Amino acid sequence: MIDQSKLAQLAAFVEGCSFPCTKQELLERAENENATDEVVDMLDQIPDREYLSETDIIETAQGCVC
To answer: Which tens digits make up the pLDDT trace of 1-53?
Structure first.
């Protein structure tokens, strides 16, 4: 199960994203905004595809990250 504090960090990060967006776009935004290592690690683990919403990213991360 994903650590809830890490999930909260990811949720806060994706709140300002424009959708749809790709994994690469999320990683670039994380780098530009100096996201926490935890957020970057979670983004690294999600599949390389287009995401349609905050919920899409968070649900995907929950299934990928321990």
So the answer is: 568 889 999 999 999 899 999 999 999 999 999 999 999 999 999 999 999 99
Run of H or E including 20 = none
How many domains does one find in the chain? 1
pTM (whole model) above 0.85: yes
The per-residue b/e assignment along 44-55, b for 16 or more CB within 10 angstroms, e otherwise, is eebeeeebeebe
In terms of Cβ atoms closer than 10 Å to its own Cβ (0-12, 13-18, 19+), residue 36 is middle
Residue-range definition of the domain harbouring residue 29:
4-64
